[in-house]
Amino acid sequence: MATTDFDIAICGAGPVGLALALLLVKHDAPARRIVLVDAKPLDAVSQDPRSIALSYGSRQILEDIGAWPIAADAIHQIHVSRRGHFGRTVIEREEYGVPALGYVARYGTLVSTLAALAERNDIVTLRPLQVASSIERDDAVELRCSDGRSLTARIMVQAEGGVFSEQAVKSVSRDYEQTAIIAHIVCSKPVAHRAFERFTDEGPLALLPQDDGYAMVWCARPANAARLAALPDTEFLAELQRAFGSRLGRFTKTSPRAAFPLGLNAHAAVSSRTVAIGNAAQTLHPVAGQGMNLGLRDAAVLARLLSRDAAPEMLQQFIRLRQTDRKLTITLTDTLARIFASAPDGALSQSALGLSLALVDALKPARRLLAEHMLFGSRQ
Questions:
Q1: How far apart are CA 164 and CA 140, in angstroms?
Q2: CA distances from 367 to 219, 245, 357 (A)
Q3: Cα separation of 6 and 176, whole Å?
Q4: Residue 232 belongs to a domain with what CATH number?
Q5: Alpha-carbon Rg of the chain, whole angstroms?
Q6: pTM, whole model, 2 decimals?
Q7: Low-confidence ranges of the chain (pLDDT < 50)
Q8: Is residue 192 classed as helix, strand or coil in its secondary structure?
Q9: Are residues 33 and 106 both part of a single domain?
Q10: Could you tell me the residue range of the domain that residue 280 belongs to?
Q11: What is the DSSP secondary-structure string of 200-214?
Q12: What is the pLDDT of residues 170-199, one digit of tens each?
């Protein structure tokens, strides 16, 4: 066996990469044989105000490494409906015996908590430092960094969201086009601990309880999204009111809005000594808020395997174990995105969604299957 600087090199010290490192230590992997490399300074990432949705299953993973509680707003109920159509379903925490269905937290808060734990556990973290390239050899992987240094490891894990191999970039779905608009919204009649997933003619509109209002993710076709993002606040709130309805009273305030294009990268890159997890393996449509949760489940399974042996056969086993969960989650989110982004307004596929929601609400086993996947994914 070749002598290497580290057993495991993790490229990307976001929530998924940090969680993987901490889970490895939890499973008795030597902390000094793990290295995290990230291109961004911690101070900048810690100030990231983006909202993230964490399932109850993700809370359990974070609890396992001592990263819970964090500042977060609990979701006790999820109301799913189709705007202007019959059919809806409501998922309640009491049905599943959990204190919350999920939580809404700040990305920067979660990273800060995990980074502090990594430091406390003596996990080597190099940031800001960019990995310029990597060379996979028979017995090791060499990481060539932007400052000229080289690091070697038995296994490299790509956990840097949005950084894909050439093959992965080609696999991003172009079959539909949508843009997500994100903002923090204040309304006159908020409902404590209730989240909403409202399907409009162009895609899902999610409102997640946070602070004094709601974290909003509104998905629309690119031209309309650009128009909405550019509107003055008063006009934007009026458009939001028309799209969502009056369940929360009147929308009174919006933060500055940001927009980003959506697509699907579902290439679980793996080679003999390199594997991708989280957003580096699958970038999902934000419908149902499953991206971060799928990534944390990736980390939990990979940590369990690599703590036994940082060897290539464990990467192949990881891909096999994660296949069902990844496929189900990707299919769910991608199918819902295509229904609205590709079909004309009022198409039969859109109308059928309302009927499907009504059936899910009426059939308790179907609602339980949907809820348990959102809570825990497919457990291994």
A1: 21
A2: 24, 24, 9
A3: 42
A4: 3.30.9.10
A5: 21
A6: 0.87
A7: 86, 163-175, 343, 347-360, 362-363
A8: coil
A9: yes
A10: 6-53+60-72+102-171+264-341
A11: ETTEEEEEEEETTEE
A12: 444 444 578 889 999 999 999 999 999 888
